[in-house]
Structures are given as C-alpha cells and as structure tokens.
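Sample entry (183 residues):
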Amino acid sequence: MKCIECRIPDVKLFEPERFEDERGWVMECYHADELCFFGVRENFIQENHAYTRLAGTIRGLHFQMPPCAQTKLVRCTAGSSLHAAVDIRPDSDTFGQWMLEELSAVNGHLLYIPKGFAHGYLTKTDHTEVQWRLDMPFIPQAAKSLYYADSTLNIPWGIENPILSEKDCRKKAISWQRLKRIL
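Predicted structure, serialized as tokens:
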C-alpha cells in the first residue's frame, strides 16, 4: 500500500496495490498492520455503506462533536465521488483548511480522515457507492452538518445546485462562523 501526501498532513490518502490478470483484479483494501505503519492505529468498530442514485448529490459535511468525534477510513466502491475534509480542530495549525480528493471504483483509493474533521462528498456519477469504517458509533445527539457551500470555506465543488438532504441544506446545516463559536 502506498501513502500519498495530502494538503493537510493529518489526512492520508492510500493507494492499495492491485493484482490484475485476465479475470480482473484483487486488492487488499484494509490491513491493520500496514495502515499502522503509516500512523493509522484506530480500532474501527463500524462500517457504513451508502448508495446514491444520482450524480450531483452532496452528502455532508458531517461530523460528530467531541467526545464523540469519529475517525473515518473512506473508499468509493462504485462510481466516482469527490470528498472534502475540513479541519474543525480549533487548536490545529490547519484549522479551517479543507482538501478535496477524488475516490472512485477505478482508482481504489482510501481516504483516512482523523477525528476533528467534517467530511462530505459529491457524487460525480449515477449509482455511486461509498463505504467507510468508523472508530466510534453514530450518536444522533452529537451529529452535526457544516454547510457545504459556506462562503468562508469556499470549497470548489464545481456544482451550483446539488441534490441535498434536509439536514445538509442552508436552513439546517451549521455555518462556519457558528461552528467556530460552539467548538
């Protein structure tokens, strides 16, 4: 497995090795000892799988408030998706910074997002599937959504009118300014 440097050092992008022949390919998408070599030491206790029917859908930017913050190990198993990670750790040198990475079934990459980040993604193809491992369970009372199009963050999603859930729309999601006050 290869670890690719990211714009925010605490976030890691992994490129698993694929073994291909005339039948197709196989890859090791999770190996605790190998990930540990790169500093990923979490005990992942839950795995989620999301299917999104239409391209142009944004899910997120989701996070859980401390002490329920979650570390995620994310991959796209069908289609293609653009993933954002926003540093919401007030004491971090990269507080308020974000990064974007494309994950797809074709590239097979995994994105490691540590505690203290909001995460969201835009589906670039119809019938996209994303899976992620978590080191903490979902706690509804701690779950929040940072507004994906907050003008302070100015994340270049490349879409004007995405499909959103009610909790991710401007009326329900938290602004960056409000989030800074409650952290």
